[in-house]
Design goal:
This protein is α+β, with helices and mostly antiparallel strands and 66 residues long. It has helices at residues 2-9, 25-33, 49-57, and strands at 11-16, 42-46, 62-65. A three-stranded antiparallel beta sheet has the order 2-1-3, with no helix packed on it.
Length: 66
């Protein structure tokens, strides 16, 4: 049971480090789905496969701080 509690509490911090100008519209939507709007915005999100997929899509725009 300890493993379930560990994964439920796992979070990942995501910071937007590059501007969205000249970026594909799909990638802009992915950044918005992560809850990031301006440069240097930071969000703490639940570590899930869906969030990891969004991060992988825009890997060149964000920095992951675990």
């Amino acid at each position: 049971m300890a493993k379930k509690n560990e994964t439920a509490a796992a979070t990942v911090r995501v910071r937007l480090v590059k501007g969205l100008r000249g970026v594909q519209a799909r990638h802009r939507l992915s950044v918005k789905a992560l809850g990031l709007g301006k440069l240097n915005d930071v969000r703490e999100l639940k570590d899930s496969p869906q969030v990891r997929g969004l991060i992988n899509t825009v890997y060149y725009l964000v920095r992951v701080e675990e």
